[in-house]
């Protein structure tokens, strides 16, 4: 199976990462420390640091990565986790990765402070990489997160936004971090600027695909698989790819969303309409396009070791496989 194999390529590196994360985000205050412990004990796939490590191995043409690559992988996971803490507060999500969210376990105030603390810690470690180009590239991501959340907050239940605006929002919320961390890893390997930018585009496209697939799973998956309530994005008025495509076929869906799910049964009915439409298929096709573009980009990097880049192809295929 692709999933177990692709992560086995970076298993030792991820083991080191898991050991380092808790010590990296240790806080003096016991409540902040407990919140950090809770977050990283919940685990997760560690997909973003795995991608950073795969980029590092491919661009170095070595199974041994630099300590700066390892630290960048850790920084990437801390930034991602910080964004999840704030997302959960905004969306009032009760569970994440199958465990209680920080604001549910402690309080909203503690969750906001924990997220801020993690962003601050990531910035400190990022500065200590002593590479201004990497700092500039990664620090932009935190700005993108904020812009993505603000944009999303302004368009809840808005039926007038386009699929292009959805893609742009998805870039800010998800693809920006993956793209920037891929480029950062390439910069640390000291390859040429063209190859750095190609690594960025690889990350951008698989990041967009990841978000589209996440949005599909919000409609078709189970709470146990997602680790968060099913249909949460839809309930909060976050219109996503499968919803946009389904809306072109159903006036009834438009009416239900316009009414902001005023009846208790509206969410369930909306999900059934989306499932019976071509919305899911068209969203899958869109995700596949981005995955294939990412694979084509990484395959075009002829100077990257052919055996090593194969892990990046497998990672792209793994992301797509989540919906099959």
TrEMBL record:
<dbReference type="GO" id="GO:0004659">
    <property type="term" value="F:prenyltransferase activity"/>
</dbReference>
<keyword id="KW-0460">Magnesium</keyword>
<comment type="similarity">
    <text>Belongs to the FPP/GGPP synthase family.</text>
</comment>
<dbReference type="GO" id="GO:0046872">
    <property type="term" value="F:metal ion binding"/>
</dbReference>
<dbReference type="InterPro" id="IPR033749">
    <property type="entry name" value="Polyprenyl_synt_CS"/>
</dbReference>
<keyword id="KW-0414">Isoprene biosynthesis</keyword>
<keyword id="KW-0150">Chloroplast</keyword>
<keyword id="KW-0479">Metal-binding</keyword>
<keyword id="KW-0808">Transferase</keyword>
<keyword id="KW-0934">Plastid</keyword>
<dbReference type="GO" id="GO:1901663">
    <property type="term" value="P:quinone biosynthetic process"/>
</dbReference>
<dbReference type="InterPro" id="IPR008949">
    <property type="entry name" value="Isoprenoid_synthase_dom_sf"/>
</dbReference>
<dbReference type="GO" id="GO:0008299">
    <property type="term" value="P:isoprenoid biosynthetic process"/>
</dbReference>
<dbReference type="Pfam" id="PF00348">
    <property type="entry name" value="polyprenyl_synt"/>
</dbReference>
<protein>
    <submittedName>
        <fullName>Prenyl transferase</fullName>
    </submittedName>
</protein>
<dbReference type="InterPro" id="IPR000092">
    <property type="entry name" value="Polyprenyl_synt"/>
</dbReference>
């Amino acid at each position: 199976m692709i999933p177990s194999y692709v992560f086995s390529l970076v298993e030792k590196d991820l083991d080191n990462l898991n050991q380092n994360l808790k010590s990296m985000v240790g806080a003096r205050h016991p409540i902040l420390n407990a919140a950090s412990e809770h977050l990283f004990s919940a685990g997760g796939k560690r997909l973003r640091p795995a991608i950073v490590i795969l980029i590092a191995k491919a661009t170095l043409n070595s199974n041994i990565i630099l300590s700066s690559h390892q630290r960048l992988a850790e920084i990437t996971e801390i930034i991602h986790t910080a964004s999840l803490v704030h997302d959960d507060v905004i969306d009032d999500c009760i569970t994440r990765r199958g465990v209680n969210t920080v604001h549910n376990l402690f309080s909203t105030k503690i969750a906001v402070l924990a997220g801020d603390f993690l962003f601050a810690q990531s910035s400190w470690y990022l500065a200590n990489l002593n590479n201004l180009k990497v700092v500039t590239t990664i620090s932009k991501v935190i700005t993108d997160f904020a812009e993505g959340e603000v944009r999303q907050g302004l368009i809840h239940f808005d039926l007038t936004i386009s699929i292009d605006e959805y893609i742009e929002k998805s870039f800010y919320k998800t693809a920006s971090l993956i793209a920037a961390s891929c480029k950062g890893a390439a910069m640390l390997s000291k390859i040429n600027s063209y190859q750095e930018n190609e690594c960025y585009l690889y990350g951008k496209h698989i990041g967009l695909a990841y978000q589209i697939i996440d949005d599909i799973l919000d409609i078709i998956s189970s709470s146990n698989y997602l680790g968060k309530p099913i249909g949460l994005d839809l309930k909060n008025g976050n219109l996503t790819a499968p919803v946009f495509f389904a809306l072109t076929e159903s006036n009834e869906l438009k009416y239900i969303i316009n009414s902001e799910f005023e009846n208790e049964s509206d969410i369930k009915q909306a999900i059934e309409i989306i499932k019976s439409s071509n919305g899911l298929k068209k969203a899958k096709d869109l995700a596949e396009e981005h995955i294939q573009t990412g694979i084509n980009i990484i395959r075009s990097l002829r100077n990257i070791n052919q055996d090593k880049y194969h892990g990046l192809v497998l990672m792209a295929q793994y992301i797509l496989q989540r919906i099959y």
